[in-house]
Amino acid sequence: MLPINAHLRNPRIRLLLFTTTVLSLYKPLLSCYSQLALEFAPQTLADPFVTSRPPLLASQVLAELGPVLTGERDLATTAAAALEVVMAAVQASSGALFRFQEKPAMLSSIAAAGFAVFPQTAVFPLMPKHVHALIGAPGPQRISRDRSDIFLSSTGNISSVWFRCVVPLRVRGRLIGALLLGEREGGSEYSAENLKQVGDLAPFIGLAIYNHQLLMSLEERTAENLKLIASVHSFWDDALAGFAATIDSKSKEMHGHSLRVGRYSAGMAEALGLNPTEVGEMRASGYLHDIGKVTVDKHIFTKPSALDSGEFQEMADHTVVGHRIVSTVQFPWPHVPEVVRSHHERADGSGYPDRLRNDEMSMPVKIVAVADTFDAMLSERPYRKKMTLGEAAAQLSWLAPAKLDADVVQSLLIQLRRDAVSLMSPPRPWASSQERTRKPFLDPSIPCNISPTDIDHLVSELNHRTTRGRVFLT
C-alpha cells in the first residue's frame, strides 16, 4: 500500500474536497516510556476506499460534508453537523452517531437528531459477538426488531428498536464507532442505493472521529509525561531538557532548538537582573515553548518551499495546542503556559495566535520570543541558509523595538559582549567568583566571531532608535 501522501498527489482525490480530512490524519503517535522520552511515528493510512473515486452522488454529499469534517470545531459540533448532512442525504427522520470504546466495550453517543427524547449520552454496552459483527459487517445493514441484537445489546439506556439501519465506522479494519439511523421520512425502508450511499460516506466520518481520538490521546499522553516530571521536583531541569530534546526530534534542522532557546532565555533573564527562581522559569519555558509541535505533520518541517495557508495554520496552531497541553500540568512556575501560547506574538500586533501588542505581553513571553527568533536565525532551515552571528545580532537589533522588546534584545547583546570579551582575555585575578565561573551564553556549536566593538555599535544604534535620538538630562 502507498503512503497517504502518494494518494494525496492524485488529482482526482483532491476534487472530492476531503483532502484536508485525510491529510489531518497524518499525525504522529506519542508513546510513553519510563525514561520520559517520546517516540514519534507518522501514521500512513491507505484504506482501499482512498484509491478509488466514490460514485457521483456520494461525491456531491462529500463536497458538503468535507468542510464540516475539516472545520475548526470540537468533536460534538462536528459530529452533529456531519449527522445532519448524512440524514438529509438519505432522508432519515432520526439518527445518532456513536464512538466505540474498547475497555469496557461500548458505543457512546456523540450526536443525535430527530428524537423526541434522547439521553445526554446514550450507551450500548457490547458483548464480543456485537463487536465481531460490527467489524465483520460488509457495509451498512438494515436492522429490525428481530435483527437488532446481532449488532446492539438490549442493556443500554436506549432501545435498539429506535433504529432501522446500522453503519459500522472503521479505519483500517479497526472499529471506531457506528452511525445509527432511524426510520426514513415517509416510512419506507432503506434501499440498496441508500445503503451504498451511506457506505461511501462512512469511512470519512470514521476518519474524523479517529483523528480526534488520535490527537486527544497525543495531547493527553504528553500532558501525563509532564505531570510525571512535575511530581519529581529535584529532577526538573534534567527531565525537561530530555523532554525538550525529544520535541525537536521531528527534523534534523530542529535538533537542539528547544534546549538552546531555554539556554538563551535563562541567560537573558540573568542579564535583566531576574532572581534565580525567575531564571529557572525562563529556562523551563524555553525548553517547552514548542511542545505543541508534537501534533504538527512531520513533512511541514522539511518542506523546502513556502508553506501554503493550510500548512501555515497547522504550524501556527502549535501555540494553542501547546498551551492546552501545559495548562493541565501544575508547574512551579506560573508563566509557562502563557509563554507556550504567546512566544510568536510581536510588539506591533503582527504575531499569533492572539495578535497581542507589546504592552499586553509579559516579560517572560518577550524573553522567549527573542531567544526563539535568535536561535532560528542561527539555524539551517530547508528553505534558507543560517545567518552568521553578526548578521543575527544586527537583524535582532533592527527588529527592536518595532517587533521585539528593546530591553530584552539589549540583554542578549550584553551576554554576547561578555562572551566576546572572555574570548579575548581570560578573567583577571581580582574578578569575582561569578565572573570566573561564568558559563558562555552561546551554545558551544555557535562560534563567537563578533567583536565587542561591533556589539557596542549595535547597542548604540538600538538605544538611538528606542529614544528616537532624544537626550534625557538627569
* Biggest pleated-sheet summary: 6 strands, antiparallel
The number of helical segments is 19
Distance between the termini: 75 Å
Mean pLDDT: 79
Assess the beta-strand content as a share of residues: 5-15%
Which CATH first-tier class of the largest domain would you pick? Mainly Alpha
Helix and strand sequence? HHHEEHHEEEHEEEHHHHHHHHHHHHH
Strand arrangement, largest sheet?
5-4-3-8-7-6
The CATH topology of the largest domain comes to Hypothetical protein af1432
> Regions with pLDDT < 50 over 5+ consecutive residues?
1-57
Number of strands: 8
Task: Write up what this structure looks like.
- 47% of the residues lie in helices and 9% in strands.
- The protein has 474 residues and is α+β, with helices and mostly antiparallel strands.
- The protein contains 19 helices and eight strands.
- It has a six-stranded antiparallel beta sheet. The protein has a two-stranded antiparallel ribbon with strand order 1-2.
- It has two domains: 209 residues, Beta-Lactamase (2-Layer Sandwich), CATH 3.30.450.40; 236 residues, Hypothetical protein af1432, CATH 1.10.3210.10.
Keywords:
474 residues, alpha+beta, Beta-Lactamase, Hypothetical protein af1432, 2 domains, six-stranded antiparallel beta sheet, two-stranded antiparallel ribbon, elongated, disordered N terminus
